[in-house]
């Protein structure tokens, strides 16, 4: 008896082959990710507890499940589940935030160098200004800011944001070192320092501020569903109107 569709069996074998190939690829990628060395802790993120506190979503309660920094960045999703992180959503979130940190994609404060007990100071200071040599340097935002507010500057100087220990007052500029830009931090009106989670220091007129490790500073906020979400919104609102009309007639 002839098959109705002799090609269907070959299609099934081909589908099975592709599925097995995909599984092998996923398994290989998983092994590669686990074999990568853990990133080096930063002054702002020195340990497991601080990392979990920064990424929020109540991940701090799982700190005891990670005996070391290397373990935090090497455990697979299955190992995380076996360790007691039962929510798949939380496991995916942790793995995503681990990957970003490994790539150097820090949140506010992650790129600071002078941190003491989870706190660091950012201050607007004047440093010697070297005239730009190329048109590319002229387009630099720092130089544009300098040109726009040159009347408020000391001649031959420019304003930059520097990172100091929390109790430091003086800053000694080293011309041999390249000045660093800190994510999310900027100079407002050529005088004030602006950025997320900054706490101005009294008596500095807004030119200096402290940033401290806080719960959820790097958290990816979840969206808020209104009336059941986009798909069910019309249905939910229609039911509500019908219920209101029923109550009015009663």
From TrEMBL:
Q: Give all residue intervals belonging to the Small ribosomal subunit protein mS41 SAM domain.
A: 48-104
- Can you list the GO cellular component terms from the UniProt entry? mitochondrion
Where does the record place the region Disordered? 226-250
On the tree of life, the source organism's domain of life is Eukaryota
Q: Where in the cell is it found?
A: Mitochondrion
Principal location listed in the UniProt entry: mitochondrion
- Decide whether keyword Ion transport is in the record: no
Q: Determine if Membrane is one of this entry's keywords.
A: no
What keywords appear on the UniProt entry?
A: Mitochondrion
Name the protein family. Answer: Belongs to the mitochondrion-specific ribosomal protein mS41 family.
PANTHER family reported in the protein's UniProt record: PROTEIN FYV4, MITOCHONDRIAL, SMALL RIBOSOMAL SUBUNIT PROTEIN MS41
Mind telling me what this protein is named? Small ribosomal subunit protein mS41
């Amino acid at each position: 008896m002839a098959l109705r569709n002799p090609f269907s069996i070959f299609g099934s074998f081909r589908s099975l082959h592709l599925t097995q190939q995909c599984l092998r690829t996923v398994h290989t990628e998983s092994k590669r990710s686990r074999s990568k060395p853990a990133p080096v802790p930063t002054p702002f993120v020195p340990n497991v507890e601080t990392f979990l506190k920064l990424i929020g979503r109540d991940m701090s309660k799982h700190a005891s499940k990670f005996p070391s920094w290397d373990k935090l960045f090497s455990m697979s999703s299955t190992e995380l589940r076996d360790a007691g992180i039962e929510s798949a959503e939380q496991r995916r979130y942790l793995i995503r935030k681990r990957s970003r940190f490994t790539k150097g994609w820090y949140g506010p404060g992650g790129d600071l160098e002078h941190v003491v007990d989870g706190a660091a100071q950012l201050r607007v200071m004047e440093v010697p200004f070297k005239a730009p040599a190329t048109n590319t340097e002229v387009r630099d935002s720092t130089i544009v800011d300098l040109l726009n507010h040159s009347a408020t500057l000391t001649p031959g100087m420019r304003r930059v944001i520097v990172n100091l220990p929390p109790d430091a007052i003086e800053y000694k500029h080293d011309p041999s070192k390249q000045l660093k830009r800190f994510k999310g931090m900027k100079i407002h009106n050529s005088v004030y320092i602006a950025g997320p989670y900054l706490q101005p220091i009294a008596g500095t007129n807004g030119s200096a501020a402290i940033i401290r490790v806080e719960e959820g500073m790097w958290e990816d906020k979840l969206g808020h569903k209104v009336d059941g979400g986009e798909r069910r919104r019309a249905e939910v609102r229609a039911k509500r109107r019908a219920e209101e009309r029923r109550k009015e007639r009663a």
